[in-house]
Specification:
alpha/beta, 7-stranded mixed beta sheet, globular, delta(3)-delta(2)-enoyl-CoA isomerase activity, peroxisome
Amino acid sequence: MDRTSTMQVSQQDFEKAQEQVKLLKKDPGNETKLKLYALFKQVGLTYFPRKPTVSWAASREDNARQKYTELVSSLVSAESADPKTDTSPGESRHGDYETVLVTTKNSITKIMFNRPEKKNAINHKMYREIMKALEEAGKDDSTIAVITGNGDYYSSGNDLNNFANIQPSEMEKMAKDGAVLLKEFVGHFIDFPKPLIAVVNGPAVGICVTLLGLCDIVYASDRATFHSPFSELGQSPEGCSSYLFPKIMGLAKANEILLFNKKLTAAEACAWGLVTEVFPDSTFQKEVWARLEAYASLPKNSLAVSKQLLRSMEKEKLHAVNSKECEVLQERWLSDECINAVVSFFQKKAKL
């Protein structure tokens, strides 16, 4: 096959991808739209063109076309997987959730972040649904609760679209409401009455890293990473990490993570005390769930009482830390420094 025929096939794939974008059932989100737009620009097109005209000669344009096609393919695959209906035999599904999948099996309630097409980024609705799921798990007949992610990511942290399209006149209300929501959200983790186990199946970012200090056990795949880029975004720590991280790993190491945006591998996070144990990704799910099922067979009330003994001495302190962190974050969100950092983040994404 000569280069001309290869180009024709590539052009057909590209045109097919454009049609597939229009048929997506879910909005891919601003971040993905910006990427698609940037790739269109590189091949001389505008977003969602009616009659694309492309010069197929330049390798840069070929590369952009290829990346565009691959990105659309991943979006289509994510929809085709339909993860919301993916439950195993004997697993009962809870409630009417959109952003999380909550199931119970073998005395384990599993709360799964369920926005794989957005790398499980947490938007406002997801915050509220996780709180609801924790409330229900705390009262149901399960022995332990598990938090994990659907897809390749554990969670990419806050959905920065939470900060997008906010009018200047709405900024103060946004910051105040956001701080109230965050305080309540973290409070649910502080007060959770049963053993709470994080099963970190992939990269974790931001608040989903800081909350790990409030979990009782953290198991991670060896492909997981841990990153809290607060300074990069002009923000400050949350999830009680300003208190728990120095206590867990020492002040110097906590500073690298919380001040200077250090990204940890799973092995580093385990060595630093944030992660309990790391497993090979190929056997991660099998090994971890076998262990969790053994834990769930232990006397339920004994586990709950023992957890409360371990946590009771610090619960008041943790709530005070949570309040202070949210107060500082509210100020940060209104600062020019934070606003400029978030704008810069979106601009960088648009250029990818």
